[in-house]
């Protein structure tokens, strides 16, 4: 059983096609064989009927009810002993057989009513040497008026070996040609299978090249049935590569961030600070390093995303985030409005959605005067794709000049140094958007007049 499970796709298809081909050709051969046998027997019946009619038309029955055959029978074989063609007459006290039946024991036939005709066979006969043979018989019931309405049965026999020889010749030709056709069709099937499965072998070769680091991704030259698979594999490869790259960046950032507090501690040790001053400085720098490590670990934990994650409802998560922000910025009295499509779903990790909405909304609350607007729209997708989603966050704050957008999105840059923050929120948003192959646009809000942050997460396989 295990061997069947490990058969290759080509072997499975070839085996199935071979079994179907053998069954089809076998049934076809059987049907043709039976049709030929029936046709040959019908032809024999017609031939024997013509011979019987011809023989009777030239025969006579005298008043003594003796059967007189024609001087020249319809077929010369009726006059040659053992020729394979025989004739006989059966009646009340009458029995006649053709010269060809000399040394043969013809099988008896049923006595037929006048006008009745019957084709039988094969029937067994015994020749002069005591050997068995088979014949086909065609009989006619006749009433002879000139002999006082004398009733008799006239029969014509032909050796079954002749029709059997025809059938054997036909069968040899039939099964020979069917066997040749089966061989040719199997060869064609093998070629078709190899051609059909070539895209899968190409994918296998490309995957081997990716494993050996000879290629970065699978090519896009594949049949449409494999496009979703190869695209998903490419997404997985790129996600893993991106995850590794972000992990390296996180370690680099962590090392770089820890250099400053370590340098401060070293300088305090070299300055011969007092025990109490050193204790206070160590506590402060340890606290700072703990914050740096916690931050970098959280960044590393959310550096990737689940490629086949379940859809997450957006509206409920947005309400939780806004409820918390309204408490933090209660003194400003900012009102956040929603325009969220009820069918909108985020296909990714919950942490990514919270970070994305949290940083965008917190930035809007920070700069808004009184109003923030969150719009979530569904982007339709093609068949076999997950739909995309668009996030739009508007505020009525001072806005962002177009020339300052690129600088503001850089890591560690704040829009206003007097405002509390680390300048990394929008950088985190950019990293998440990049992980989902999305787009981030910053422009002026048309209605509220402040800044508009628009994030597009495109449809994906």
Automatic annotation (TrEMBL):
GO molecular function: phosphorelay sensor kinase activity
Keyword Transmembrane helix among UniProt keywords: yes
CDD domains registered for this protein in UniProt: HATPase_PhoQ-like, HisKA
Class of this enzyme: transferase
Catalytic activity as recorded in UniProt: ATP + protein L-histidine = ADP + protein N-phospho-L-histidine
UniProt cross-references to PROSITE patterns, sorted A to Z: HAMP, HIS_KIN
Histidine kinase domain ranges (all copies): 253-461
Alphabetical keyword list: ATP-binding, Kinase, Membrane, Nucleotide-binding, Phosphoprotein, Transferase, Transmembrane, Transmembrane helix, Two-component regulatory system
Membrane-spanning intervals of the chain: 174-197
Intracellular or extracellular location(s): Membrane
Chain ranges of the HAMP domain: 194-245
A single cellular component GO annotation: plasma membrane
Known EC number: 2.7.13.3
Pfam families: HATPase_c (PF02518)
Keyword ATP-binding belongs to the record: yes
Protein name: histidine kinase
